[in-house]
Amino acid sequence: MSRYIINGRKRLSGEVEVQGSKNSSLPILAATMLTKGENVLFHCPVLSDVDAALRILRYLGCEASVQNGAVLVRTDSLSGCEIPDAFMREMRGSIVFLGALLSRQRRALISHPGGCELGPRPIDLHLKALRAMGAEISERYGVIECSAENGLRGADVALSFPSVGATENIILAAVLADGTTTITNAAREPEITDLCDYLTSCGAEIYGAGEGCVVINGVKSLSACSHTIISDRIVAATLMSAAAVTGSEIYLGGISSTHLASIIPVFEEAGCEVFCRDGCIRFKAPERLRAPSLIRTMPYPGFPTDAQAPVMAMSSVAGGSTVFVENIFENRFKHVSELCRLGADISVEGRVAVVKGVKGLYGAPIKAQELRGAAGLLIAALAAEGKSELTGINYLERGYESFEQTLCSLGADVVKI
Ligand code: EPZ
Question: Are residues 52 and 13 both part of a single domain?
């Protein structure tokens, strides 16, 4: 099991181009199943979750390869309709293959997705919407069997919660369906907009992407295209947290400040200077961080739940107290006990965590248990005096591309063993 050895309190400096977005790449890779011809995806990050998505496509008979930093996918030879349990369990994002597979093959056999580290991760909203679009869905022996022998039809779907994955699955099921689909209370994340931009380039008719109501007019076919994946706003927030806890000034390239609109004010409240221009960010930390008072995670454009752990690491060494309210997932404070091993002063009550900033953290052995928690622990280790050993970095590598190299290029002391 690989691990990181981190020697903290090294000041960072320099510039980083922000990697492509994991949560945009996964639905777009699923969407390629709906196209004819060769798709070329630029700026697709090199991650274990992306590798898992490519394995699913190849298993289903598609051609998928990585050449010169671009991902090439041709799905004309797609022949299967079953995604084995082992693949489904590798990541939560596997569920987003359902809508596209069902649309393309009119049948899909999957199991419940993995990634249950944040809570039960139900898919009731996905299945309810697909049933409304004409799918027959049964669950037995751990297999979810979906079929739509006469193809999918447009429907009016109102989501009880603006679920990112459910919104993506409905869009993927709707673009080739018969008729019009309306999604009310749709998720508005930038990754949804990026998916819709890709599908529109392929010939889909989608209106209102990134807004609460999305309308999709089904078309007859979609043609493969080239698309550049947007940058990963959560990786950008993680790098800002790294600079904040080390009193550093860094530059981030290729990231939209719009996608960080609810994150930047938190860093500014902590005393950081954030200057945005033409897709670049100049980030400068203060000598002493001030604790942001209250952070509520919300659906986009609110503060993203995925940035909660890295920002909590920052608040653990800020002057004052920060209250975190985790409104999206039931169980997303697993990193707290490990942060406390480094000397953080955090108490958790249900969905609320109260962080009392301490003067400093001290290196210790720490263990990651999920992707963003791993990032938070890494940020805290960068702040800590002395050596930390972080295990469970396989979780980190699901979403962060060569992250130890990125941090070392900025002057951090992180060694992968
Ligand atoms: C996506 O997960 C992201 N994953 C998550 O990022 C992100 O945290 C999340 O959206 C929220 O922004 C990918 O895009 C691959 P949801 P998803 O459906 O689609 C409940 C990361 O670290 N819900 O918006 O699973 C659910 O239990 C990952 O990159 C239902 O109740 O999120 C949760 O409480 C972690 N029924 C809430 O909605 C459903 O059918 C948000 O889930 C679906 C969801």
Answer: no
Q: What is the pLDDT of residues 201-216, one digit of tens each?
A: 999 999 999 999 999 9
Sheet with 107-110, side-by-side order of all strands: 107-110, 143-147, 136-140
Site to substitute for ligand 1 among 164, 170, 395, 397, most atoms within 8 A of C-beta: 164
Q: Could you say which of 165, 193, 227 is where a domain stops?
A: 227
What burial class does residue 190 get, using C-beta atoms within 10 Å of its C-beta: 0-12 exposed, 13-18 middle, 19+ buried? buried
Which of the residues 44, 62, 81, 116 is marked catalytic?
116
Domain that holds residue 403: 3-19+231-416
3-state secondary structure of 108: strand
Is residue 116 flagged as an active site residue? yes
Domain stop point among 187, 207, 227: 227
- The atom of ligand 1 lying closest to the CA of 124 is 40
Q: pTM (2 decimals)? A: 0.97
What distance in Å separates the CA atoms of residue 120 and residue 12, rounded to the nearest whole number?
A: 38
Among residues 116, 117, 111, which one has the least CA distance to residue 98? Answer: 111
* CATH number of the CATH domain containing 92: 3.65.10.10
- The band of 33, judged by pLDDT with boundaries at 50, 70 and 90, is very high
